[in-house]
Design brief:
This protein has 122 residues and is mostly helical. It is built from 6 helices and no strands. The chain has helices spanning 11-26, 32-49, 63-73, 78-85, 89-103, 108-117. It is globular.
Length: 122
């Protein structure tokens, strides 16, 4: 990444990191070892972009809910998320509804704001 002279990441670098993080969370498929390794890489990338830990008030999202939220955050549509995650679009909607309920939000935009503010996603 091409960060600025003061060590800060540029907005373009952050956007790339967000996309890579989102895809890393879901590309591992059903192989548990691969999923664990890729999740560690995603977490490492996350910490490089969001240096503060997840806040205690962060909603307790499941891994699949967080996968869906991360993909929404970088612009994927429900049908694209479903394809990447290997589930039906209705399942993606269910994950997002559940995440909104847990975060006490009523829109995708508000959900993303809470997830970023609480450190759940970069």
């Amino acid at each position: 990444m091409s960060g600025a002279d003061d060590g800060e990441l540029s907005s373009a670098d952050i956007e790339v990191a967000r996309r890579v993080y989102a895809v890393l969370r879901v590309v591992s498929g059903v192989d548990p070892d691969l999923r664990e390794r890729l999740n560690r890489l995603a977490d490492e990338l996350h910490r490089s972009v969001v240096p503060h830990p997840v806040t205690p008030s962060a909603p307790a999202l499941t891994a699949r809910e967080l996968d869906a939220v991360a993909l929404v955050a970088v612009g994927y549509k429900n049908s694209e998320i479903a394809q990447l995650m290997g589930v039906a679009p209705e399942t993606v909607k269910s994950y997002l509804r559940s995440a909104m309920n847990k975060s006490e939000t009523r829109s995708r935009h508000a959900l993303l704001a809470v997830a970023r503010r609480s450190g759940l996603i970069p």
